[in-house]
């Protein structure tokens, strides 16, 4: 045990001091990729088996439920079209620039980190797909996190719930900007340095502000669940609940927003290849 602890501390020290160790780690991640794929096979087999043994009554009930959901979503789409047209007219009146469409590729979950002190996951997209360190990742509900390590065929994502992760956000209701930081819990985020007099309320939706150039603007991050004002303190205690559901989702979107400065270690050719792959995925999507 002492030998393993010594080796672990030596590797952590080498990773922080020697840049070559990160490349070695990426190559080793490529080697263990088949093991990660094999580890994900049992859950896929269980899903297939549950579908195969479901009886006709379950299928009929599910079909009826999906029809009701489709009707509800169709109504929302009709309303959204009207709101989008109205928004476009207002932007033209204000001479505002239209938001650029952000290319993306889809990714599937391979594994979730079992360490209770870290919140990371491994996706089945890597360097060959144009994935890069710092790339934002979302699910169907909102922001999941960002890529922190890339191998040839897989990538490791640090989730917003991790205590070392922070995201610049703004309140959709009034535009106030804050920083949201993970707490180590899937259902709680901290909103940092909120003045006691700030106009922030329970139920406010927090979206990415676009500051810093890492995350594109307007993606949902969290919803405020608790605001505590202490007259004797300069800042209020504000907590929020993430809108994304990493513990339930299996499929994700890896975004390719326009980057203001080239990321270290990514050449112009690789960056253009990444955008080409993302554009092709967008064209293939229904």
TrEMBL record:
It comes from the Bacteria. Belongs to the MreC family. Residues 112-254 form the Rod shape-determining protein MreC beta-barrel core domain. This is Cell shape-determining protein MreC. Keywords: Cell shape. It holds the Pfam family MreC. The keyword Nucleus does not apply.
